[in-house]
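Title: Comparing notes on inverse folding

I've been comparing how different people in this forum approach sequence design from structure. To keep things fair, I'm posting one structure and asking everyone to reply with a full sequence. Here's the target:
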């Protein structure tokens, strides 16, 4: 097994890649819009219904597609040009968000419109993030995976930072229609940037790069599709090839305990971040009494910490990465237990800053380690498997947080989040042990 190395980050080399510069802008713009959408819609639902359960349904609806889409999505990501897949997903999501913005502008917006829009964008996102994470491998030198992941995370969190700083104030002026319109427009900007990442069609299944990757089912399918003859064989062969690819991916993950441990830890952290929105909105409204601007400050604090965490993670020596990975998970667990007792805005923003820092630190370490370990032709299926597990945890946590917070209070809700991050700490300890064993 290849182990993760920690070469020195060369920012000049990273930013010299024209494709990566476009990729960075795409992530920044996309997350600016998505951050405004998520916070704005959550606040709109809470203001309209005064129910954390209804807010949790937004997270649930966004998450459900992740149970099904990645099974096929991982295969598609490892078969077709990841750039074109990303562009297509951006365009489709942008159209539906703009449609919801138009309905809101006309004054006919109902909750089911928002849930429907969220379901569609969630379906796209279930495949989109695995796609772009795999695409990073193709546009950056392997020696710079850590720096590239840090740069992407900084772009993502910078977009979230500006969105968080603006969303509360824009909500009070432009309303939900304005926020959705901005988000819809950002999808088209992101699609354009992804399109400019490179030229031509690049298949992850290049025979010259991966000569042993094609099995008999794939070869028969390719011959039938290229010749245009025997469509029945082509159709049946394609099904067999897709099934074979899925099985191959599961076999790979079963044989890689380090990849599983890193993936599980990262998935739990991701699920915790998304599902925490259920209680974060209630924290701003019920404990801090800060309204929509207060929610914006909380989101901005989280994103500021994430930007700092990404910058620091990119400079860490290899020997310190896994110990800090474990420490970041432990801080998230302890911090969420304490959060509902911090009843003033500055303190709550500081807590969010710490959480963002820890999440970014852990995310960069996990993703860069995975990119150093996982072969390119397995990355799509690996990312999709992580997305499926993340989805399961998000669904369970969103259901639980909505009901527990409404029935037993926010303290119980945050205690549940602390328990989740305790699980990620245990998994991170396991990953560290396996990493040390693999490198010895």
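Reply #1:
Here's my take.
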């Amino acid at each position: 097994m290849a182990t993760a190395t920690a070469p020195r980050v060369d920012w000049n080399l990273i930013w010299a890649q024209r494709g990566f510069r476009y990729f960075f802008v795409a992530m920044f713009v996309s997350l600016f819009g998505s951050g405004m959408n998520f916070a704005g819609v959550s606040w709109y639902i809470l203001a309209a219904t005064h129910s954390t359960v209804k807010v949790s349904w937004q997270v649930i609806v966004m998450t459900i597609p992740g149970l099904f889409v990645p099974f096929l999505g991982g295969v598609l990501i490892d078969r077709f040009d990841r750039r074109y897949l990303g562009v297509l997903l951006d365009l489709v999501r942008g159209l539906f968000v703009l449609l919801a913005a138009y309905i809101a502008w006309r004054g006919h917006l109902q909750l089911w419109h928002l849930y429907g829009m969220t379901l569609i964008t969630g379906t796209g996102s279930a495949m989109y993030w695995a796609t772009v994470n795999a695409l990073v491998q193709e546009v950056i030198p392997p020696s710079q995976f850590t720096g590239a992941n840090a740069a992407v995370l900084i772009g993502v969190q910078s977009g979230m930072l500006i969105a968080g700083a603006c969303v509360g104030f824009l909500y009070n002026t432009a309303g939900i229609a304005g926020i959705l319109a901005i988000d819809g427009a950002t999808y088209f900007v992101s699609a354009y940037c992804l399109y400019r990442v490179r030229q031509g069609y690049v298949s992850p299944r290049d025979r010259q790069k991966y000569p042993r990757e094609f099995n008999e089912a794939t070869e028969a399918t390719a011959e039938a599709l290229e010749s245009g003859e025997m469509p029945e064989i082509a159709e049946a062969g394609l099904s067999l090839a897709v099934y074979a690819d899925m099985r191959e991916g599961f076999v790979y993950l079963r044989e890689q305990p380090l990849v599983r441990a890193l993936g599980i830890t990262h998935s739990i952290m991701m699920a915790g971040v998304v599902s925490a929105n259920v209680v974060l909105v209630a924290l701003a409204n019920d404990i801090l009494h800060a309204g929509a601007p207060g929610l914006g400050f909380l989101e901005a604090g989280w994103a500021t910490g994430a930007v700092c965490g990404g910058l620091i993670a990119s400079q860490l020596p290899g020997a310190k990465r896994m110990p800090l990975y474990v420490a970041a998970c432990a801080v998230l667990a302890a911090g969420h237990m304490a959060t509902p007792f911090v009843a003033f805005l500055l303190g709550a923003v500081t807590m969010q800053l710490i959480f963002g820092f820890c999440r970014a630190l852990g995310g960069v370490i996990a993703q860069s380690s995975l990119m150093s370990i996982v072969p390119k032709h397995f990355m799509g299926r690996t990312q999709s498997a992580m997305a499926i597990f993340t989805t399961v945890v998000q669904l369970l946590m969103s259901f639980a947080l909505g009901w527990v917070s409404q029935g037993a209070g926010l303290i119980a809700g945050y205690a549940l989040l602390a328990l989740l991050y305790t699980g990620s700490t245990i998994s991170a300890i396991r990953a560290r042990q396996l990493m040390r064993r693999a490198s010895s």
